[in-house]
Amino acid sequence: xxxxxxxxxxxxxxxxxxxxxxxxxxxxxxxxxxxxxxxxxxxxxxxxxxxxxxxxxxxxxxxxxxxxxxxxxxxxxxxxxxxxxxxxxxxxxxxxxxxxxxxxxxxxxxxxxxxxxxxxxxxxxxxxxxxxxxxxxxxxxxxxxxxxxxxxxxxxxxxxxxxxxxxxxxxxxxxxxxxxxxxxxxxxxxxxxxxxxxxxxxxxxxxxxxxxxxxxxxxxxxxxxxxxxxxxxxxxxxxxxxxxxxxxxxx
Length: 251
Fold this sequence. Notes:
Elements: E1 5-7, H1 11-18, E2 29-32, E3 37-44, E4 47-55, E5 73-75, H2 86-91, E6 93-98, E7 100-106, E8 112-119, E9 125-135, E10 141-150, E11 163-164, H3 170-177, H4 184-188, E12 199-203
Parallel strand pairs: 4-10, 5-10
Antiparallel strand pairs: 1-2, 1-7, 3-4, 3-6, 6-9, 7-8, 8-12, 9-10, 10-11
């Protein structure tokens, strides 16, 4: 799965990389969490824009998002059949730009340690995503999104049994965003593990486990034999579909 990630690309670089019509001003963030606003890229009528959405997908048919399960990921293998995602696979695909994402690996001693996964070439990671426009009976409106996940390659299978679907080149990004001519089945085929050697995983400090932690120190690499003082435990999550992202909540 993907439950935490970092996005630090400056607005001008993001605009140039994806050919955007607009500029989305967001500060660098090293510990992005579910329910918080995230920057995504989508394409409508051949024009691409960056948008601010809530991380936690809510289908348009949901009556009350607060009573709906928090969907931060969509499995590539089943998303085209799931009622929550099947329309989005056809019509509402997006890209979630990232420097990389975090995953917790259980070691031989049974302890979980965080790892940061990023592209080995240092380029921006374009994660496949799905988005939805939700409107309430009282005129409320919010855009939400989730990240598509796949079975990992051998480089990452020891870290976790799922990983984001990373679109590794411009052609894949173009096809994923082109909902006008690339149908859902063809788009789903773009979601697979990247070639061996294209992603890099390394251990980082436990501070990322705290919802209050932020900053570039979170992605500083640690040696596997480094010992750390345990990081503060994050607060327990609220009921499914609820908030938990503090002042950045959209619900």
